[in-house]
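RECORD CONTENTS
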Amino acid sequence: MDAGQSPLSVNASAGTARNLSADEVDGRDAVELARRVAAAARDGSSFSHTAFSFDYLTTSITVPAMGLLVLGGQVEVERLVGGPDTVICSFVVDGEVVTSSQQWIEPEPLQNDDENCNLTATIEVAPGAHQVALHMTGVDDDTKTQVGQGNLWVLWAPVDGTTGTFRKPEPGV
């Protein structure tokens, strides 16, 4: 093609191109292509407790269609005094514990040896707003545990509402 020449010409009276749509890509509506991400991060805090339970990090995500939430998070936990303490880290989505995400850790006291809760999980969700938390629960009594820096991220990916599988374009489309 010569310089200054247009690589494509358009004839509005020719009609529409077969298998070409400004509203879809490979047969997928824009809502199916969307990816949503939410994240949160926090510096550490110390907690004295007899049996603490709290949401350490929270975020919300609004998804336009049925899909999967892919969850990831990490938090440092250190025992400051007394005997070993048991801490349970887990994700909570819309008030329900994601049991597949639960991790039990027992940091040793005064060892300068932080334990890390490193969590991942996947959960199916319906369209709409969802609350996601990285939740901490202390199990033992009369303890002091330091919860360090942490992060939480959430990714939404669309799935086919009928089969529950990711949509893939047909061959040749």
User: Anything to note?
Assistant: DSSP finds one helix and eleven strands in the chain. The domain at 46-157 is CATH 2.60.120 (Jelly Rolls). The longest helix spans residues 30-33.
